[in-house]
Amino acid sequence: MSTRDYKWEIVVIDDASSDATVARIKHFLAEHPAVNIRLLLNERNRQKGGTIRRGIAEAAGKYTLFLDADYAYPINQVGNFLKQLEQGIPLVIGNRTDPATTYLVKPCWFPFIYLRHLLGRSFNLLVKALLLSGIQDTQCGIKAVHTATADALMDKMTISNFAFDVEFLYIARQNGQKITQVPVTYNYIDEPSSVRLLQHSLVMFKSLFQVKLNGWMKRYVLDSERKP
Question: Which residue has the higher pLDDT, 228 or 12?
């Protein structure tokens, strides 16, 4: 990031983790005091949705890109997302099913990735049928958005679990925001994701119907769009 010709900041949020994440980040910041990185600590586990909402609220730039902290999506992809935002697209999301997407996977993780892919495709088929036709990969862990747009959308969010992404994109589409999908590089060479596939999948499937109900009841209409 230090080679970029624009101003940037990195906001790292620890969601009440029990591992060595915070100690490692503090050690890095102590050795690199001039780097533009802020570390925020959640006092309790706020799940994915609550943590990203906090990050959006803390973001100071015109654009915000949020991604998983396991570095599954290398930061050198940021230019592709920024290009779309600068062309006026309000919301840009990664698409792991795009033919141009590149996977880097250690052989030992093939069974886990394959199961995750099957569950993900099943989930996405239901998402497309119920809520978001044309969106190929709601759960890709890298997304970029105009910060002002994100602030408005976040005010209507009700879900904090891993279905957060679906609700976020659904609210955007309900309010006429264009969503562009781009290929990514997906780097899976370390330990498994924190997603517990079966347990979290059941919660996420249930959340889809909550999103659908909220949509029917017009709970996602932004205040600026409401008719008097």
Answer: 12
Average pLDDT value over all residues in the chain: 89
Ramachandran sector of residue 61 (left: φ over 0; alpha: ψ -120 to 50; beta: rest): beta
Per-residue pLDDT tens over the stretch 128-145: 999 999 999 999 999 999
CB-based burial of residue 132 (10 Å sphere; 0-12 exposed, 13-18 middle, 19+ buried)?
buried
Cα–Cα–Cα angle for 183, 155, 202, nearest 5°? Answer: 60
Torsion of the alpha carbons at 86, 91, 96 and 100, rounded to the nearest 10: -30
Answer yes or no: are the C-beta atoms of 164 and 50 closer than 8 Å.
no
Q: Is 52 helix (H, G, I), strand (E, B) or coil?
A: helix
Region at 169 (left for phi over 0; alpha for psi -120 to 50; beta for the rest): alpha
Domain locations along the chain: 63-225
Question: If we measure between CA atoms, which residue out of 24, 107, 112, 111 comes closest to residue 71?
Answer: 24
What pLDDT, in 10s, does the model give residues 191-213?
A: 555 555 556 677 888 899 999 99
